[in-house]
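[audit] Reproducing an earlier prediction to check determinism. Same input, same settings, fresh worker. If the tokens differ from the archived copy the diff job will pick it up downstream; this log only records the rerun itself.
[audit] input (154 residues):
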Amino acid sequence: PLPESQLDRFLMRLELGYPHPRAEREMFERQHSLEEARNNLRQRIDTDQLNAIRQAVTQVHASDNILDYLQRLVAYTRQAPEFAVGLSPRGALAVLDCAKTWAVMNSRGHLVPEDIQMVLPAVSAHRLIPSGDYAGDSMALVVQLQSNVDVVRP
């Protein structure tokens, strides 16, 4: 495993798992060469559209209540006995940025607690180091974290 300082540099950890048997079968039946796959790639958005999305993310409003909620989550990871290493400032900023992106994806210009809750596991589980007594599934600890920190509505 990587040291915690290097793990903190990865934005998210996503697990895809195995495909559904039907999807896997289609994959077998439609096996293409790498060259054919490259030739079939199509541009979905252009640079201007991407820049507009980036700009929209920077404009998403985070109320004081939302920022307080995020700070309580972060503080919990730093103080609770379940965690040997809590969420870093870089990790907290990553949660905020990803939550804003999630809000844009859901056509909102402001954050709601569910935005933070949705991205928190993927953004923080690989950054949090469980303590010896709680060693194991860090994703389960993130779920526990969310249930232990009260949500205050904006």
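[audit] rerun output stored. Observation attached for the diff report: The CA atoms of residues 87 and 97 lie 15 Å apart.
[audit] end
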